[in-house]
Design goal:
The structure is a homotrimer of 473-residue chains. Chain A has 473 residues and is an alpha/beta fold. Chain A has helices at residues 20-33, 47-52, 59-63, 68-76, 93-105, 114-126, 138-149, 156-163, 179-186, 201-204, 211-222, 229-245, 265-277, 282-303, 319-325, 344-350, 367-376, 394-408, 425-446, 452-464, 466-471; strands at residues 38-40, 165-169, 193-195, 250-253, 306-309, 313-314, 333-334, 358-360, 382-384. Chain A has a four-stranded parallel beta sheet, covered by helices on one side.
Amino acid sequence: MPTAPPTLHVHPDRLLPPEPHLRDIARRLYDAVRHLPIISPHGHVDAAVLADDLPFDDPASLLVSPDHYVTRLLHAQGVPLSELGVGAGRLDEQQARRAWRHLCTHWAAFRGTAARYWLECQLHEIFGVTTRPSAETADDIYDIVAARLAEDTFRPRALFGQFGIEVLATTDDPCADLGAHATLEADPQWGGRVIPTFRPDRHLEPARPGWGQAVTELGEAAGIDTGDYAGYLAALEARRAHFIEHGATSSDHSHLDVRAESLGTREAARLYAAALAGTATPAEATAFRRHMTMEMARMSVEDGLVMTLHPAVRRNHHAPTSARFGSDTGHDIPVRAEFTRALQPLLERYGTHPNLQLVLFTTDESVYSRELAPLAGFYPSVFVGAPWWFLDAPEAIHRFRSAVTETAGFTRTSGFIDDTRAFCSIPVRHDMSRRLDSGWLARLVADHRLAEDEALETITELVSVNPRRAFRL
Amino acid sequence: MPTAPPTLHVHPDRLLPPEPHLRDIARRLYDAVRHLPIISPHGHVDAAVLADDLPFDDPASLLVSPDHYVTRLLHAQGVPLSELGVGAGRLDEQQARRAWRHLCTHWAAFRGTAARYWLECQLHEIFGVTTRPSAETADDIYDIVAARLAEDTFRPRALFGQFGIEVLATTDDPCADLGAHATLEADPQWGGRVIPTFRPDRHLEPARPGWGQAVTELGEAAGIDTGDYAGYLAALEARRAHFIEHGATSSDHSHLDVRAESLGTREAARLYAAALAGTATPAEATAFRRHMTMEMARMSVEDGLVMTLHPAVRRNHHAPTSARFGSDTGHDIPVRAEFTRALQPLLERYGTHPNLQLVLFTTDESVYSRELAPLAGFYPSVFVGAPWWFLDAPEAIHRFRSAVTETAGFTRTSGFIDDTRAFCSIPVRHDMSRRLDSGWLARLVADHRLAEDEALETITELVSVNPRRAFRL
Amino acid sequence: MPTAPPTLHVHPDRLLPPEPHLRDIARRLYDAVRHLPIISPHGHVDAAVLADDLPFDDPASLLVSPDHYVTRLLHAQGVPLSELGVGAGRLDEQQARRAWRHLCTHWAAFRGTAARYWLECQLHEIFGVTTRPSAETADDIYDIVAARLAEDTFRPRALFGQFGIEVLATTDDPCADLGAHATLEADPQWGGRVIPTFRPDRHLEPARPGWGQAVTELGEAAGIDTGDYAGYLAALEARRAHFIEHGATSSDHSHLDVRAESLGTREAARLYAAALAGTATPAEATAFRRHMTMEMARMSVEDGLVMTLHPAVRRNHHAPTSARFGSDTGHDIPVRAEFTRALQPLLERYGTHPNLQLVLFTTDESVYSRELAPLAGFYPSVFVGAPWWFLDAPEAIHRFRSAVTETAGFTRTSGFIDDTRAFCSIPVRHDMSRRLDSGWLARLVADHRLAEDEALETITELVSVNPRRAFRL
């Protein structure tokens, strides 16, 4: 008689502090917010998924292939990305099952990771899986999830409602027509709020391959000739306006550094022309990009888009992998970040302007207490973004609160941001954040730094007020 | 019937570990040191406050306007510094009440911050406030504090005694006549010890506006012509001697970096002349400042003043605010620090000299385990300074002990330093430190890294021995 | 009647979490691994100690003089290294007792340090000492330890067996004949596995004094003329082969940075010739060293030696001490480390090659979450090394697991490495690691991130599988 496989267990008190007294407090705080609507002000879900509302293809395409948190760790175990359906488009059932089996076979490699926590919660709470993934259980679990995905209640719009999402921001190229957003807006059956985010990186970096083409496309999208610098600025402004018309409240920027330094119009125009002509030096390309960070701040002051910065990641570290599988395939690796000096010119110019809001994210924890909290603890325009990417995980979130709160308090932080491509992980990630912040606040109550009514108000604000304030929702 | 406002509650076990077993140990350790005299070897209280012994003006001038920990966070909430009495000199009652109301109205913004903890303890323990600050309670609390400040027992000297301060160091310009210190020394009614600290930064940085004027003033104060380099050195030495006569035991240095590099007398004299003539380049000005860091070490070896270093803060980050409100107004922002390479020439020359003592402070936590603990764990001259500025807070203090102790132990740390301008926060800050170190030591006892008698001896030494040793008191 | 001196107490539950529920879980995990064999894949014990199997000389020579963790902190207390027998060769009894007395007299200075924990466990568990070291007890404890060292059961081979060591790696110069390793291999009485590690630093850095002599010696050892670059490469390859024949599975590299950048054969040969001629500039010397890091990776791909990197320590910070006492005398001080950019060329070339294995160590904690975990979480060739040197201590090990696990899991870490010169500390260090990882895993179980059976499998793998995998044992 074969032994039953181990169960998949998701404990109701998971991530709350284990000490009984702290857990009691944390539970009371968590209970107050667990069912509050989800505000997701920054992420990478495709609006077309909701506009089209087609059933998801299969378990692997939903939970494995597009999620670089998952595929990267499988790759580190020696599984080629090609086995996981990365960059492969729609998978046939054999491919999907194979990718799924790799995940289940290597389930133990995820122990202790954030990805494991998210997957486990999704499998159990959304899909009702009750056995632990393994080589033996892979096919059964695949069948369970696949069966669910065929049900109407597992179509994207149904899940959006079931997840309790109130606002969902997507991330979009300035040239995007935002048709899916318009479709949703126009649909009387649809009550959700799905808004775009203006992400112009590829149009702002002359050093990046394809920049010339990008500004041509920008001009076409805006109906403005980007052949000179004035037209380029006008086209960017026009596309920002287009985004704002479709509900955008923020622009997002992810360059190698956050340095903002104005060149003056004349020099900027000269470098723009040189870049178009292909004669700009690398230093000039960088100078132009830093000039444009300042211009983006200037536009934000004028049109009110919140400006979010996600710097200091070396993209596509392993060129052979990018060449074969494309970007966002798990080998973007952080480098040291610096904000104090880099943002000084921008903050000197706009830092106390009431129209500016900057949300600063980092994958370099050393800046939390050294730079981000001090900046957000003085400038009314600066917010510390929620822990990002590699730091969006239980231990790292505790370190974030520990490093930021004592200088900047809670009000100067952005509230949770899921930043995900994995649609079904949205409720799980927000729930994780609520649990961890409840646990964090419970400690402040337990050692008498905060009264419990204050902690209760704080956890509620972190969920419902902070993201609205930071993102002007 | 109106509801009673929430009470202001200060728990006797605050900041001690919440787990019952650890709390018991921590309480025993804390009880052994809670009433020991306060040694404050570095801070920014004005000696004249004690020499004159006038009543404090009003609650806002005492607790809000001069405290950049408080005003910076209110500024981040959108309150202009002008509303808080910053840089305004003496406030009239309307101004003082307005500043106070801003604090109380934004009380929730301070949750989880060190400033909140200090304010709460001061309001409750020193002034007897029992209701939580809010827009509604602001005026009542103002009245309570104002009434106390009118009492004789709340005059500076009375509080000095009540706080149990044994030694208080001030921070003073080399040109200061130290008259207030002399007044106190000469007063037979006065039993306290108030000593100056030699802080020559503005005289050592040719790149700083006003340096020429500063060295002229230095010459006048010393009665020595600072028109050439030899006179400049002699004047500095003379003023150090003047400070030592008035009880100084340390000099303090806060430059952008701690690099110490001797130029040799001839080149130093050349750069000094160029700086006076206004022809020194920025690189030469920096080289001269680094040369002077080495000279300060040389003088310390000769006259025995302990040398404390507080580097790597970008001062006056927001120029419009400094222009209007002056320095120390909440927008000094840390940058990365580096000690290993920067101090190598100094330590190679003087690091094992019995007369040198260096106390190294940082706002960049990444150097704790990487550089400061290894340096203090080898050089008998080096001490790791207590957590400074943004890091002088409960979580940060735990991170400090965690990062430093395993390499450098307890004896190589400086003991607590309050570094404050806020006179009434002195006892509260020292008490906070005693509670946190008790909690830290309780953990070492609870997991059997230390016997309780050793922890008891250690907490007592941290309070009574370490600061005396590090500052030669 | 004199009081009895305090006892030396080593609690069976030391380092396990103090909370009762967590301690119960941790105890179950620890019990499963406490008696498993020790795998020590990187360290600095001399193989001759085991080959010769002579009794250890005296307590100070065994536990004080050669251990820079101990002597550095005594030096910081003002004890000259000459008093501790550093660099003094064999000590006479008077010298040995004097060194020992310094340790005991300054016992309190070690409170809270890793060195204190290791010494305490060794004294109690290996030598049966039951009184706490102090000035008063120094001679008695010396006598107890000295008496034990005279017993046959305290000879090196007997201890090796008693400690349960299965594999012990030494660290050796490429010119080493590995005679002691050969003796042990050839001895039918000897069942242990003692393998060398190829550590070629001094042969790869033209800027280091003595490099020219080093490559001459290399040529002599290999029987290959190192007068030109081709011979130099061939000699290195030959010596690697020699090490592999004697059981080596890894090479070790400790330069100031890990930058790997190929110059091409022609340019490398030119720089090699210039370096031999003494005409290479410092920049060329550095470029050559970085080229050789890439060459070492190339050789690893070819011969399968695991490549371990220990970068970013400023060696011999205090030149007067090195001049008098030699290297490794306690004043090697870390500097900032950088891996993402520095290793990009190497990983682009070899990062997915199945023959390459890189184990990355750091004394700069800021790279754990920012660089090391992301790299090891993608590249199948990269492992995160166990906490190294100043970070090999209870608090630091918790910070390591906290920073690394959520991105890279457990499988991408190297398993524990003692890296020690102090033979008797080997079992104590491995035991410490097992306790701490048990405690860490207990927390994951207690807040429901991991089932207990998973934690049990993980702790077992960390002890028995990870080091074998990372070091190809």
